[in-house]
Write the structure tokens for this entry.
Amino acid sequence: MRFGSPQDSVELQRMTWPEPGPGQVLVRVRTAGAGYPDAMMAAGQFPLLGDPPFGLGEEAAGEVVAVPAGSRFSVGDRVTGITAFLDGWGGYADYTYLREESTIRIPARMTDEEAGGFPIGFRTAYAGLVDRAPVEAGQVLLVLGAAGSSGGAALQLGKARGATVIAVAGSREKLDFCRRHGADHVVNHRTEDLPARIAELTGGRGADVVFDPVGGDTALAALKAVARNGRVVLIGLASGKPVPLDSMDMLLRNYSAVGVLATPGSPEAEAVVWDHLADLAAHSTISTPVGQVYDFQDVPEMIARQARPTAGKTVVRIAS
Ligand SMILES: NC(=O)c1ccc[n+]([C@@H]2O[C@H](COP(=O)([O-])OP(=O)(O)OC[C@H]3O[C@@H](n4cnc5c(N)ncnc54)[C@H](OP(=O)(O)O)[C@@H]3O)[C@@H](O)[C@H]2O)c1
């Protein structure tokens, strides 16, 4: 592939997959999760990747076909995890490498589609709402982009932690989707006055935590609704612009902003994270909010559509 529009830049290549090295497992892919980062990668706007060619797809689910010596996984295990995409091995492929520390066995109740779209959104939400800006039971969590990949996961993880969740999205269809996935309240950022609605919903207090994968004007409006001692969790910029922070406003209104990049910690720390997420999924406390499911041959078209995503987590079916 080369940088450009997905239809021009994404192409099929014949590959061979060497035996996996330490810390990776080789899987035969069944499903792979998609998201806005695919569009950024195809356009050459993803900060952590060098020049093409590289494989696209940050997460995948399938069967393990090869493991290095000493792996905690075995051939035949049904797993889902984060791909070695930073080394060029993406999930939109017949086979891919998963990073062992970011891989779990698929809980029995999870479908293939839920499994393929599980790791990135929930690992990101965990980094924000558990590690970096822990949201507590009884607090108010405001989630921007709540019908999207990381936002949809944050909505559910917030509910799992006992927060009252206000979901923000841009259409009635997306607001209905957020309600079905557990939001206590929903606000349309296109048609409603966001700070006024949050004030109304919180009795004037504001939100204790704002989860922001969107940035831009929507996040700027949400800043006006942060409670005293509140925290803004900076995740991404789906709007194309980061949120402009005003240090004087932060000082005068006593709130802070926390940057989050969901990179793996030590193997021990990662094991705690993934065991926790797998346990919540096994009990159906959280589940991937699957949206559209695409066929493998439609990946370029699917990536092009990530700039204007529909409700829920987009997943690609690679093999049955
Ligand atoms: N920090 C990390 O570790 C990490 C991890 C994963 C992703 N990210 C980043 O997070 C961002 C979102 O990724 P994602 O996969 O969650 O994206 P996604 O699934 O495409 O969701 C993004 C949501 O943002 C909303 N949106 C887009 N433009 C908007 C605007 N102008 N105003 C308000 N809402 C807008 C859309 O909803 P509406 O239609 O409802 O507006 C969409 O549902 C990306 O920048 C990505 O790189 C960061």
Remarks:
- The chain has two domains: 6-118+288-317, 121-259.
- The mean pLDDT is 95.
